[in-house]
């Protein structure tokens, strides 16, 4: 039946799937999303969006979606009521707390939580109410290296300089593919158009990657020599060589360093061996080209470097993040137009974080491996060993907004460990692979269309400063899926634990519950954050100019915050004396260790056998890690291989090959392409949907590449495993 135009309402909202925040328009009828299209009137995206955002209606309306709590009974999941599920889970938690430490209850939250402040906030609050520090997040397989480097240099993990793209004239992209993933950590809708603006202004963009990515094909189409292939897992040598050459050529900004930095001389000495000539055969980039990149970067007013997953998932991933920041510092590109800037907004998340104790590094450590806690979270690479520990193991695990059995390193090990849990509760809108393998209870949660949205944690990471809020596009049924905050608050209340582990807050929460039957809600937190954040900026909402109350924000929806500020470094830094300490003891140790690798890496590369390859991972524009495969139109992923390698191993297009390491093996079809360099193969992560509860994803199931990865050799600072550039053996099936 055709719907009349009067029965269809258009609702404008921002996509929350990634940091880009593209504007979308949903057609809604009778609380059902009929369709989604791009919003041509959105001030930033102006009609641009990727396939993932357009598929949100398919996720919300997916017939495979979970709508009622499920309990594992034998080998099947049976539907139960919310009341039964919550009470049974609470009873089991009480039993575990009675016989073991609160730390025996763990929580893993994935990428989706980072895009909804209430999700991550209430996870931390729930665990604090239990008294447990066993919190794990997807950041430890994604971005912890940047948080660590930022803490060591700027005094707070949440202080993240971002490229000032509208004024950039030279941009170096290292191990990042914004043509597929946008800028990942940085908010910039339609980022490829913004980057093409650099070229339109006569600027230059270089892309460094082992694979000719979608980004490289677009941004270096007219300048093919600006795509520079690099040998995997050697980015750190390239970056250190650029630092070396800037010093060697006398291109450092001496005035900036004298005013803002410490230990410049020690830095110069520690990178002395990393000459372009020494690292060239390791990176497989000519020394002259390394020198040219360093010189162009240093000499251009308005130059920036941006690195992401390729630099975050390598052996020296914290050094990679540190080196990129240090390059901006020594060349005087920090806090300057067109370089990298400290994101401006209505409030400062680093200031708020410092007030409530987030953004710290190294104040606590993991029991297994003694890895430092980053942003309050433990590395997921240690989770399996914590579950299997002979003394005080993890007995219960909550999972929300993620799928660790596909995301964590050494998935086989984690799968075995999950089977040992006394209680596993998965909060998701699907029976994902982690739930299928281990969940005792599955609690259905709302989709992005069924919740209010304000990306609070991302406010200082926007290329174009703004603040945006919208209410839920549609409402879930009262007896249906719930938001994570509501589930966790209810559990905390049934366990008689103080809200967020804070007794005064618990009293407030109890009093509010008597009034609204919800207690302290996310909107109350938002009001508090906006008020406190503006007070920290010495402004009073509603009275001072340029301020904003929550009601005003709800009414306006989108509020621009003007252009970025420059020359604010002294205001932003949270270091002693407001100086950047270039060399900390842990960085010194890592640099010395990297120097040892400098003299062995080339010999190791030369000893590789014909069947030995380095495997790199990546993403697809149609999917988001593992959970969009049931809603979009994916294709079965293939292993990319250079045709010359295929010829050497007698492998043809589409042949099934065995890819293996000491941890496991996968069988995958091949795709021969010159877009990948010889000796290197590529396969996307987030696949392996051998799952009868995901009908579409199971058809295009792919394989889980993390069956091959290692959970032992984690970066000692970030806790991130090496998930790219690992050695694999390939055999024709």
Gist of the model:
The chain is of the alpha/beta class and 733 residues long. It is built from 30 helices and 29 strands.
Report on the architecture of this protein.
With about 725 residues, the protein is α/β, with parallel strands linked by helices. Among the domains are: about 5-50, no CATH class; about 165-345 and about 580-585, Dimethylsulfoxide Reductase, domain 2; about 605-730, Barwin-like endoglucanases (Beta Barrel). The protein is built from 30 helices and 29 strands. The protein has an 8-stranded mixed sheet. Strand 2 (about 25-30) and strand 3 form a beta hairpin. Helix 6 crosses helix 16 (about 315-330). The chain is globular and about 70 Å long. The model has no long low-confidence stretch (mean pLDDT about 95).
Gap from first CA to last CA: 52 Å
Tally the helices: what do you get?
A: 30
Q: In order across it, which strands form the biggest sheet?
A: 5-4-20-19-18-6-7-17
| CATH class annotation of one domain | Alpha Beta
Q: Kindly estimate the percentage of residues that lie in beta strands according to DSSP.
A: 15-25%
> By CATH's scheme, which homologous superfamily of one domain applies?
Dimethylsulfoxide Reductase, domain 2
Structural class: alpha/beta
Helical fraction equals 25-40%
| CA radius of gyration | 25 Å
Overall CATH architecture of one domain: 3-Layer(aba) Sandwich
Poorly predicted residue ranges = none
CATH topology of one domain: Dimethylsulfoxide Reductase, domain 2
Mean pLDDT: 94
The main pleated sheet reads as: 8 strands, mixed
